[in-house]
Amino acid sequence: MVNSKLSMSQQCVLVAKKTNRIMKCIMKSTAKSSDISRSSEMILPLYLALVRPHLECCSGLLSTGQMWSSWSRSQWKATRMIRGQEHLSYEKRLRKVGLFGLQKK
């Protein structure tokens, strides 16, 4: 979707909402008490297959800091869900699982 100013910001907002819904499904499907379902071997493939492609499709179009922060939030949630990494900073969690921030992409 492109508005009259030839901006795809509306499309990016819809994609951000979609990724948030997907992240909620991932969070609900992984039991908090189970170490296996909260491991990086379980969370990262789900995030990389279901969420990250949506974020990357609009990443070149984003220019506002507010939009970047809402998009980075999905990745922040995914790394935070991994058991044993809850206490680490976002940058340390990214390094530990081998991901880059969306702005570097």
UniProtKB/TrEMBL annotation:
It comes from the Eukaryota. This is Uncharacterized protein. It comes from Zosterops borbonicus. The lineage of its organism: Eukaryota, Metazoa, Chordata, Craniata, Vertebrata.
